[in-house]
């Protein structure tokens, strides 16, 4: 069916094929459309009127609210009516906010389950407790008739552990405490003592021990293997040979004794600069103590100077390193050495490059305390009358170490009347010193002492009102004021000894800084070949 619609302003006609629509219906539809268009026009005009009225009301309300000014700037016109009105607005809004503040009361939790013992056992049966806590959880089943009980629990064929030689303990007691049988312990102790003195084995040495299978129940386990580092350059190994006898094997370790030389700028702190450069703390203390006896470190050493120290150092082929005592201490300014000190002799004194050992310091306080009474006339605190005070009193606590003010020899050590426990030292130049009221004496008569060596401890023995040190000095047997004497000890190297000293100093100065920190190149005999072919994959190959 084909058709089309044709419309005009006065009529609406339908044409479907050859049929024509009746004209009364077309006129009715035209009138309906016209009335609907008028209704829509009325609604649109009324909406426009309402929109205009709303815009006018909004503008009127906005202008009135602007006149009221409920939220003025509180930073302006402080104290005025407008400012108080804004303050009231702020307080009102805060009250509203607090009124709607949420409640943080705790929520009611669900009641915990009341577990009886049956429920607890059921939960425990489904747990896995670690061995450290007993491992008694999980479901347990009783043994069935198919299970045959063992006559005895099997033992491990070998036990490997590490024993440590503690301070004050003997090597024999350490072996017995580790479980080594008395026969094996005696044999090992005799073999080790034949290789190295047992007293030379340092405390803290770790010993690897392997014990074998017991020959019978209740017997001690036999020693299968034992190994430890007896010295820095020697490792001892005890093993059981094919004949079942214990044998000792010495493993000599290659050691390089190249000294460690450290140089650097002094900076703001000599101690911190040396520690930052990698110097050991003990060597730094020796360095400062050696220089302090020769120069004034506060005035003679500048921040731009260079410190130079050489320490005895040992490197083992196995990788261990060991730092020793200070060998050389120097201060350079530019390229010119200002101070050069080297340790020399059996006593370990430091000598200048010229071969002169000297201490230029004056009076050294025997204790680190202030002076409570000087040399001269005073009223005796116990006797009550004025008498000559032939020394100096130092304040110090009971037990404080007392040191010798300079090198000397102990002429007497013991009880000395009102002086209590006292030590008297004889020095060169017809000088002698005495230290009184000691609680304990640390030296004996005839012994040689060095400057700074502990000779006793502060006490209150003899005619004394409290713990302190009474220090006296004599010249030719007559008491003198210790403040008037400055000690200068000097030692001079001569002849062949001086030539050896200078040659040794020259060799030390040829050591390059940091050369001792390099690892030792392993020799062919020190490279352990891999036991399995797969381990050879990790070995480095040289190309070319």
Automatic annotation (TrEMBL):
Q: Which organism is it from?
A: Altererythrobacter epoxidivorans
Q: Name one GO cellular component term.
A: cell envelope
Q: Which Pfam families match?
A: Csd3_N2, Peptidase_M23
Q: Where is the composition biased (Basic and acidic residues)?
A: 525-544
Its domain of life reads Bacteria
Q: Which GO terms describe its biological process?
A: proteolysis
From the UniProt record, which GO molecular function terms apply? metal ion binding; metalloendopeptidase activity
> Which InterPro entries does the UniProt entry name for this protein?
Cell_wall_metabolism_enzyme, Csd3_N2, Dup_hybrid_motif, M23ase_b-sheet_dom
Ranges for the region named Disordered are 1-21, 519-544
User: Which residues belong to any copy of the M23ase beta-sheet core domain?
Assistant: 387-482
Can you say what this protein is called?
Membrane protein, putative
